[in-house]
Amino acid sequence: MTAAAAACALMFATGCSSTASKPAKGAGTGAVAGAVAGAVIGNNTGSGNAAQGAAIGGAAGAVVGGVVGMVQEARERSEQDRLAQERAYQQELAKRRAAEAKFKAQIEEELAVAEGFRISDQELKQVEESAKDLETRLKKLQEERQAAIARKRTLDTAQNRIVAAEAEIQRLEAELAELRGDEAPVANSFIEHQVERGEDLTAIATRYNITPEQIRSANDGVNVDRLEPGQKLRIPVKAAASAGTAST
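Predicted structure:
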């Protein structure tokens, strides 16, 4: 490439790159490429007029590059416009929703106020009296429930006392009969014990002065190792009497 061709290409490049727009940049880039190509073509044709070829090629390249730059810039502007419209739409939508929510809250408040005006003093009095009646009834039921539970506990305690007293009476009768040489009554060979809360097999056996094995033998088929409150067990009175005799 001759110095004139290079100067021409440089002129197109510097002249078209003075601005930052896409068409200007495209024109400058196209001018450089066209000038170089035109200079090469002019030099290779044998005419020796590389500068003229560079000028023609630079001009053509600038036109093509400018068109390409304009297309790119148009595309970018279109995308920016679309994004701007989308942002504006979202902002407008948010404002509309906020306004709708505010309007709904105002309507609900106005309805509540209107409903309050429609409630008469008589209605308020009736509602208050109904609430008091229900609360009084609830309190009464709670008190009755507590009283029933207390009575049940008292009854259970009394029944356990009766069972314990009967067991002790039968044990003493059996012990006295054995001391006198009499035969203990067969009908009273067992008594019934109702398991209390917290009792286990060892505690019951200790209470009647017998062994856990004797209770287990008298309650065949019953899992005496996992007792529940209210469960009933057979207590062997003869065994209790024999244990009492042995301890004396």
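Summary: Confidence is low (pLDDT under 50) at residues 1-19, 184-188, 239-248.
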